[in-house]
Specification:
The chain is 56% helix and 7% strand. It has helices spanning 9-12, 15-26, 36-49, 54-67, 77-80, 91-99, 115-119, 128-138, 140-153, 161-170, 174-181, and strands spanning 4-7, 31-33, 104-106, 124-126. Strand 3, helix 7 and strand 4 (124-126) form a beta-alpha-beta unit. The two termini are 30 Å apart. 34% of the residues are buried.
Length: 187
């Protein structure tokens, strides 16, 4: 059985990070999960700043669900009320992680998922930079191939390897970006 990872909305909001995570999931390094509620949350956040993207985000959402088999977690609602987190609005994320037997919640909001609470469910909250650093160390060849393909897919505008790495660094993926610089000729 593959490692199960639940993506919080905050890591799906920035397009460069979302695209990179989807590409890694698509090659099968881990089983990526999210929910309809997580979709609504990240899409709503994007639309606050970019309402003109509404139609494009519907397409993105459908492509995500199609690209990653069995990605949508369902039937977790009954767990929500019994969970306690600093922000009650994050309980749906933990409930979904419990329902799909996720080992990790990938999130920027680590303080919203206290270790002492998550430990009892065998779940860990991990910053996306740490998550990606681990994926790179576990699967260096596949990771670099995905980074290369991701960079090559960027056409408007195309990016040099250094520009691509700078874009990842701007997504708060500083360690991942530094490690990719060691292999800049490969991407």
């Amino acid at each position: 059985m593959r490692f199960v990872v639940l993506f919080d909305a905050c890591v799906l909001y920035p397009a460069p990070l979302r695209d990179f995570l989807m590409r890694l999931a698509h090659v099968g390094l881990f089983a990526a999960k999210w929910t309809e509620d997580i979709h609504k949350e990240w899409i709503s956040a994007v639309l606050e700043n970019r309402p003109e993207l509404a139609d494009q985000l519907k397409i993105t959402r459908a492509k995500m669900d199609q690209a990653i088999p069995d990605c949508l977690v369902k039937e977790y609602g009954t767990l929500i009320d019994g969970l306690k987190l600093p922000d009650p609005n994050d309980r749906h994320v933990l409930a979904a992680a419990i329902r799909c037997n996720a080992q990790i919640i990938v999130t920027f909001n680590l303080k919203d998922f206290p270790e002492e609470t998550l430990n009892s469910y065998g779940i860990e909250a991990v910053h996306p930079d740490v998550f990606l650093e681990h994926q790179m160390s576990l699967y260096p060849g596949a990771f670099l191939a995905v980074a290369k393909a991701h960079r090559a897919s960027l056409k408007r505008p195309p990016k040099s390897a250094e520009e691509y790495i700078t874009t990842l660094s701007a997504q708060r993926l500083v360690v991942t970006a530094d490690k990719l610089r060691e292999f800049i000729e490969s991407i």
